[in-house]
Design brief:
By secondary structure, this protein is mostly beta strands. Helices cover 0% and strands 41% of the residues. The structure holds FE2/S2 (inorganic) cluster.
């Protein structure tokens, strides 16, 4: 049995790359952000003119969605897809609409553009691990 651990981490804006590198319904940007126990993978995509950021962690099994770096969208450019078992997520909400974790969601991140750069951050909060 593992002791319960309470940890917190600072909410910081993290650079994810140039906003010009985002393609609507196309290649996304990956970055690492602070999290409980160390850095965690995150990504940003653009859909219908807006940027959306999530932790790069499938709601089915906690693995990264993209096998090819930045390839988060399916062939139609309408859904984010997990390369492991094919879960499909709405890019604007992170909700899984098809696949083994249907009805669950990706963890959304805050996202902003500063001087042409995409920045993301996670809300600061207490995290309980066991
Ligand atoms: S790990 Fe993503 S669908 Fe199974």
């Amino acid at each position: 049995m593992t002791d319960s651990i309470t940890s917190t981490w600072k909410t910081v804006w993290t650079d994810a790359g140039s906003a010009h590198d985002l393609q609507d319904g196309g290649t996304g940007l990956r970055t690492l952000i602070p999290g409980p126990g160390g850095e965690v993978s995150a990504f940003v995509v653009q859909f219908q003119g807006r940027a959306h950021a999530y932790l790069n962690r499938c709601a089915h099994v906690p693995v990264e969605l993209d096998w090819l770096e930045g390839a988060f969208f399916d062939d139609t450019g309408q859904y984010l897809v997990c390369a492991t078992h094919g879960a499909m997520y709405e890019p604007q909400s992170g909700l899984c609409v098809d696949g083994p974790c249907k009805g669950r969601s990706l963890e959304p991140l805050e996202c902003r553009i500063e001087d042409g750069r995409i920045q993301v951050r996670r809300q600061q909060r207490a995290q309980h691990e066991s």
